[in-house]
Automatic annotation (TrEMBL):
Keywords: Repeat
Protein name: DYW domain-containing protein
GO MF entry, a single one: RNA binding
Originating organism: Eutrema salsugineum (Saltwater cress)
Record flagged with keyword Manganese: no
Taxonomic path: Eukaryota, Viridiplantae, Streptophyta, Embryophyta, Tracheophyta
Coiled-coil intervals: none
Claim: Glycosyltransferase is one of the keywords in the record: no
Length: 760
């Protein structure tokens, strides 16, 4: 204590002097005592003494009275490093990292030099804020002062670089560290694992062995977890094998860390071996291990393994239930997943947001769209709040059946809970509105997004392509290439599909060549399929067939299906038979191929061939998928089947259809009997055409909605030419906008005109 301070201390009462002699932690034993001591110090005139003021700062800081501590600091005419370090330490401890960095900046501006006590706190602050640039600058200061050799400074600096993801800088610090231990080595191992650097991980393990530092179970768990979470599944499996080979016994954390990678790598045999190890070690009691094991079997397509393991679980737990639902849904057993979900509810198992999101996503991905929407409603009734994963999971269900009201409701929810800044939510909304026929809303959502990734751009391009708006798709593509984002194979699929919708052959060839020449993207089967469709629809069937023969790998059913569809449009029997034979080999149980070939024969009046194809279908036990259409009326989705006589409003629908037919005849319209592909009389053909599901759905909508209300219909097959003509007439006759989405594209009918320009 300096001689200048002694006279001041002599004026302070002995009780305060004794209080001052204790450590700062004792100072904070009572905030009241601190304020009393502060008052007496002010009376004694000792408040300008740096030592005493620093004690006060430490005490106020320990009680989180940072404003008071800061006022005292500002009042000191000549503050010391200790004065600032007390406040920096307390702010860091209170997780007020930005403020802590601000205090250091003031300290530095006073010309004060940080010591080995301040620097570790500062590096911790930079690590928490991921403030790499600030941390680098402080590192330079520590080097200039020669403090970078201190063990505590080196340790905190190393962890700062690790937290900022600067593996190269962290490794340089690590190499210079005077005291390496298993903790720092484990952190470096985990960091390299997250980057997928298998060779570096192996090298560090070797260096540890040479240095006499033995990795512990935490080291191995960090390696396995790092590789797994970053998607380096093969590397995780390799290190798990190495761990076992070196004689380490994996614990619950190790097993649950590696099992997801085993599933993603489809290494079922290893998964079964781990299952045996888990049973021997009695690890199945751990809920994380059980969940990971079920997940592994689900990813490997082993449904029996999921069910058997589930039956062995003694204590049912939410995570296990979630893994079960996801595993069953992933393998197409959505009915079994729904059954289990209902069982979980009956048993009052606490179902969280993951549980609900998993079953909703499973339904949406497996054709249970109405069930997905109902579950989303139940989820909210159960007071489980949907999150940024739930919304993109349920929106496809809205798009699949054009449930626009439900989609808008989900959009409103996303706005209320501030989820629109999420690119996954935004992309799902763009896709949903496009599938519901509201491409203008898709554009609006896209325009309002604060940030956009490639998925957002692709969703918008796909939406416009679905609506046959090729010029807009090409314009969006031009805007995309002006950003820093690089188009991918999905971008070009949308482009080629859009060109196919409107017959832009030259543009299609241009983009097909651009993929490889400018972006190095090798065409996939979906690109060849689009080109075959484009050429076939343009009447260039032989050119389409020649392109198929040039494909460097085996064409799939999509490619041959595109050719067969084109043959239907061009009435080309010879190529249709070639395409059909290929499809019979690829998909022998797909009734669509038989039906399409039969229709091509029927259009040519080749009834003997029609009977032959239908007999073959019957011998194989195949049935034609019935035409089915969906329409949403008053928040409810209705399903109408072709030729369905059991609908409760069938009489009103038939009566209204007859009225429309009479009006069409008055206007000179006649049914296009070419689309009634049965060998029957003309009158019967007319009745068959009147029973097509899209007509029934449109008339049902006319009967059950107010005049002028737009109608939205989805069909599971391609719309036929006669239905297209009839709905065009209805749009003008009834003064309705009618949106019809078939398996190929959108048709927007208004005032007797269709957006496709009769090219589809």
């Amino acid at each position: 204590m300096t001689k200048q301070v002694l006279p001041l201390i002599e004026k302070i009462p002995q009780s305060i002097l004794g209080f001052l002699e204790f450590s700062p932690s004792c100072w904070s034993s009572s905030l009241t005592k601190t304020t009393q001591a502060h008052a007496r110090i002010l009376k004694s005139g000792a408040q300008n003494d740096g030592y005493i003021s620093s004690k006060l700062i430490a005490s106020y800081s320990n009680y989180s009275c940072f404003d008071d501590a800061n006022l005292i600091l500002q009042s000191i005419p000549d503050p010391s490093v200790y004065s600032f370090s007390s406040l920096i330490y307390a702010l860091t401890k209170a997780k007020l990292f930005s403020q802590s960095l601000g205090v250091f900046s003031r300290m530095f501006s006073h010309g004060l030099i940080p010591d080995t006590h301040v620097l570790p706190n500062l590096f911790k602050v930079c690590a928490e804020l991921s403030a790499f640039k600030a941390g680098k600058q402080i590192h330079c200061v520590s080097c200039t002062l020669g403090l970078d050799e201190d063990a505590f400074v080196q340790g905190s600096l190393f962890h700062m670089y690790m937290r900022c993801g600067r593996m190269g800088d962290a490794r340089k610090v690590f190499d210079r560290m005077s005291e390496k231990d298993v903790v720092t080595c484990s952190a470096l191992l985990c960091g390299y694992a997250r980057k997928g650097c298998l060779e570096d991980v192996v090298r560090i393990l070797s260096e540890m062995e040479k240095s006499g530092i033995e990795p512990n179970i935490v080291s191995w768990n960090g390696i396995l977890s790092g590789f797994n979470r970053s998607g380096y599944h093969e590397e995780a499996v390799i290190m798990f094998q190495k761990m076992h080979h070196l004689g380490f016994f994996p614990d619950e954390v190790a097993v649950s860390s590696v099992l997801p990678s085993v599933g993603d790598s489809e290494k079922l045999d290893m998964g079964r071996q781990i299952h045996g190890y888990v049973i021997k070690q009695g690890l199945l009691k751990d809920k994380c291990v059980t969940s990971a094991m079920i997940d592994m079997y689900g990813k490997s397509g082993q449904v029996y393994g999921i069910i058997k393991l589930f039956e062995q679980v003694e204590l049912m737990e939410t995570g296990v239930c979630n893994a079960c639902i996801t595993g069953l849904s992933r393998n197409g057993l959505i009915d079994k997943a729904l059954e289990m979900f209902e069982l979980f509810k009956e048993q009052n198992i606490e179902l969280n947001v993951v549980s609900w999101t998993s079953i909703i996503a499973g339904c949406a991905q497996n054709g249970k769209d109405i069930e997905a929407l109902e579950l989303f409603r139940e989820m909210q009734v159960a007071r489980v709040k949907p999150n940024r994963v739930t919304i993109p999971s349920m929106l496809p269900a809205c798009g699949n059946i054009a449930a626009l009201v439900h989609g808008r409701s989900a959009h409103g929810f996303a706005v209320r809970v501030h989820l629109l800044d999420d690119v996954h939510v935004g992309s799902a909304l763009i896709d949903m509105y496009a599938k519901c026929g509201r491409i203008n809303m898709s554009q609006m959502v896209f325009d309002m997004m604060p940030t956009r990734n490639l998925v957002c751009w692709n969703s918008l391009m796909s939406g416009y392509s679905m609506h046959g708006k090729a010029k807009e798709v090409m314009s969006i593509f031009d805007s995309l290439v002006r950003t820093r984002l690089k188009p991918d194979f999905i971008s070009f699929t949308s482009l080629l599909s859009a060109c196919s919708q409107v017959g832009l052959t030259d543009e299609g060839w241009k983009y097909f060549g651009m993929m490889t020449e400018e972006y190095g993207i090798k065409p996939r089967l979906e690109h060849y399929s689009c080109m075959v469709s484009l050429l076939g629809r343009a009447g260039k069937l032989q050119e389409a067939y020649d392109l198929i023969k040039e494909i460097p790998f085996e064409p799939d059913s999509c490619v041959w299906g595109a050719l067969l569809n084109s043959c239907r449009l061009q009435n080309n029997v010879d190529l249709a038979e070639i395409a059909a034979e290929k499809l019979f080999d690829l998909e022998p149980e797909n009734p669509g191929t038989y039906v399409l070939l039969s229709n091509i024969y029927a259009a040519k009046g080749m009834w003997a061939e029609v009977d032959s194809v239908r007999n073959k279908m019957e011998s194989l036990g195949l049935k034609k998928n019935p035409g089915c259409s969906w329409i949403q009326v008053k928040n409810k989705v209705y399903t109408l089947l072709a030729g369905d006589k059991s609908h409760p409003q069938i009489e009103q629908i038939t009566e209204k259809m007859d009225e429309i037919s009479k009006e069409m005849r008055k206007s000179g319209h006649r049914p296009n009997l070419d689309f009634a592909l049965q060998d029957v009389e003309e009158q019967e053909k007319e009745q068959i055409l009147l029973g097509h599901s899209e007509k029934l759905a449109v008339v049902f909508g006319l009967l059950n909605t107010p005049d002028g209300t737009p109608l939205q219909v989805i069909k599971n097959l391609r719309i036929c030419g006669d239905c297209h003509s009839v709905i065009k007439f209805i749009s003008g006759y009834a003064g309705r906008e009618i949106f019809v989405r078939d398996t190929n594209r959108f048709h927007h009918f208004k005032d007797g005109i269709c957006s496709c320009g009769d090219f589809w």
